[in-house]
Design a protein that fits this description.
Layout (H helix, E strand, L loop, with lengths): L1 H6 L4 H8 L2 E7 L4 E3 L7 E7 L2 E6 L5 E7 L4 E2 L2 H6 L6 E4 L3 E7 H10 L1 H27 L2 H11 L2 H5 L2 H8 L3 H16 L1
Antiparallel strand pairs: 1-8, 2-7, 3-6, 3-8, 4-5, 4-7
Helix pairs in contact: 4-5, 8-9
């Protein structure tokens, strides 16, 4: 995260001020929740180690993974964190995960008092929105092969760090279809 903040143009004192609000650390076992649907997300988390999936429950009881946050990613149910309303999604560790936490009140104060934090947050929200817009567009306009290629091009770490069933969910395909796509790509690369 230090590198991200430095690359974003923050000075050493600004980075220290930013880091100073992350005062609590939690350890989650695989399967434990950071936020459950219906809870209010009162923390902004920074994943130090591990990974968390964001998922929704369908009306028939299925879980659909929409995204996975990896090491050095922020994690929170953003709409709940911003509005103070109940989260419509759950965030769950998919392997042993360590998260640094900043309380919402501390974040709000830091945000209100520091223009560099507002600029950083705006940039981060823009990046997240553009990524989400790209994923939605890919999901509705591209076939499974093209969506898989997008993962290979832009998020290859997902294929080594995230279980196939969650990657398949994010691509809108079955794990079996993902396995076929991987095998096709591997055969193509070895020929």
């Amino acid at each position: 995260m230090y590198q991200y903040l430095s690359n974003a143009g923050l000075s050493e004192p600004q980075i220290e001020k930013f880091n100073s609000i992350f005062t609590k650390k939690i350890q989650l076992k695989s399967g434990e929740y950071f936020v459950e649907e219906g809870q209010i997300s009162n923390y902004l988390g920074l994943i130090v180690k591990g990974a968390c999936r964001y998922f929704h429950n369908t009306s028939n009881g299925d879980e659909i993974t929409r995204w996975v946050a990896l090491e050095n990613d922020f994690t929170t149910s953003l709409s709940s964190f911003i509005t103070g309303q109940a989260s419509f999604e759950s965030i769950q560790a998919i392997k042993p995960t360590e998260i640094l936490l900043a309380q919402k009140a501390d974040w709000d104060l830091l945000y209100a008092e520091n223009i560099f934090i507002r600029a950083l947050w705006t940039k981060r929200i823009e990046e997240e929105y553009l990524g989400m817009e790209k994923r939605v567009t890919m999901f509705i306009t591209r076939n499974a092969d093209e969506r898989y290629q997008w993962i290979l091009d832009f998020k290859p770490e997902f294929l080594s760090e995230v279980p196939d069933k969650y990657v398949a969910d994010m691509l809108g395909i079955t794990p079996r279809h993902l396995s076929r796509l991987k095998n096709q790509k591997n055969r193509h690369l070895s020929s």
